[in-house]
Structure prediction request, 373 residues.
Amino acid sequence: MFFTEMTSKMIKTNKLDYVDALRGYAILLVIFAHTGQMFPKEYPEVLNSMIAFGPRGVQLFFIVSAFTLFLSCERRFNNDSKPILHFFIRRFFRIAPLYYLGILFYSIYAFYQGTLNISSILSNVFFVNTLSPYWTVNGLVPGGWSISCEMIFYLFVPMLFVKIKSLNDAVLFTIIGLCISIFFQILLSRFNFDVNSVTWQQFIPYIFPRSIPVFGIGICFYYVIFKQDRSIKPIYVMVFALLLIIGTVFNSGFLFIYFQTFAFGVVAMALSKRNFKLVVNRVVKYFGKISYSMYMAHFLIVEGVEYFGFFDRFPLTNQKYLVAYFALKFLLILFVTTGISGLIYRIVEVPSQNLGKKVIAITNKNNKEGIII
Prediction:
């Protein structure tokens, strides 16, 4: 009860503004990366390094998702008449309506391109597109693999919330997730199961097991930030450290993702103590508020800016011009994406979430009338 009251006070006093800000920085990183990656140029090495870091915005989304989902469960599971059913209703209406519009749009586009196939559509409809290289690499909905990972994670959240009751439990889950991730990535690196080797190697970074430790780190920081649990068994620290060392020794560079993810968690912990105005500001919070719409829309905007050749006459004769070219292109993409996404948020996301609330209200009403659901 105390925790619920404390959480309500935090929300009322805007103590969770940093959550929207983190989502805002996550989508900025993703758009920054795709601005440089979708139509690459010979950018300076420093800029290329920044572009290469941009995809970590997805891991930042996953961290925020994990600890806010646990926070939501903490608030609702003790008071909700059907907490698990309502959890899935909220998640479905939060993600599916906009995503299904994306499926419809890209299905029409693929039909005219002659690349449409039923398996790709169905894999996206059921959010399993991250489970096959044919559905992930050059898949129907750009970036759909991350939505698939998110939705698969949702399936386990109620069970994880019941089972994980402390920071030690969260660390153990993360260690197990890291072992699963290492196992699958070694397995898939050695065997391509008769899939084209290029496609297979492109697929490996997007597999769901790779995201399990990221969600685990998010749960760890939920306990650190919201439950003030700082106690970790030394054996867990040792095992976690050894796994990371072993992975590094065997040239598993992917493990740096988890170091970066952990760093994001530290940033979240710092912001939970103080909302630095320079970092947590109105603009970035707005990006976070409409971040899902921005994620879905920005792929098309990046392609559109390239297609219409807005910067075709820009001189690219030296590195300074290349940096200026990238900066102007990024700002244009961000500006257009923000404008369109604001509309999408109001006409799709908000009504969808309200519809989810109505469905929950109906289930509560039916329960009062003695109808079994």
Summary: Residues 1-13 have pLDDT under 50 and may be disordered. The two ends are 28 Å apart (CA to CA).
